[in-house]
């Protein structure tokens, strides 16, 4: 049986330039911070980070969590200057403000926590997307 924690997770898979633009535009308009996990299906460290990223997303209802396979949406990966995977990109107002390269859950959590505290919003993204 799946835990409640994972059911609340709001990680959205980006599979096209259009879906990227849609969600980034939405988050920017709603003033939501964005955390993106750039990965690849063949990259073991990326795969290992997926459950961690799901759990992290379940802890923040006012943040948009996205995941993207760098091979599926090369244009965005290139535009965001993703040169290694996994990479975690933190965006505010559609602009990158921090980048974490590598599969280091403690470092990712620490930097995401700091990022969220510095950009916190009173709204819940989960409620506005319903």
Automatic annotation (TrEMBL):
InterPro entries: Thioredoxin-like_sf, Thioredoxin_domain, Thioredoxin_H-type-like. PANTHER family: THIOREDOXIN. Residues 1-117 form the Thioredoxin domain. This is Thioredoxin domain-containing protein. Pfam families: Thioredoxin.
């Amino acid at each position: 049986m799946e835990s409640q924690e994972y059911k609340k997770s709001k990680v959205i898979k980006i599979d096209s330039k259009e879906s990227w633009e849609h969600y980034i535009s939405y988050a920017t308009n709603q003033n939501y911070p964005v955390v993106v996990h750039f990965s690849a299906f063949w990259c073991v460290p990326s795969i290992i980070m997926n459950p961690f990223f799901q759990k992290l997303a379940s802890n923040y209802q006012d943040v948009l969590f996205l995941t993207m396979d760098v091979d599926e949406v090369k244009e965005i990966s290139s535009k965001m200057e993703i040169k290694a995977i996994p990479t975690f990109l933190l965006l505010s107002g559609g602009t990158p403000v921090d980048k974490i390269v590598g599969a280091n859950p403690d470092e990712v959590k620490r930097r995401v926590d700091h990022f969220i505290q510095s950009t916190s919003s009173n709204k819940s993204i989960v409620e506005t997307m319903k």
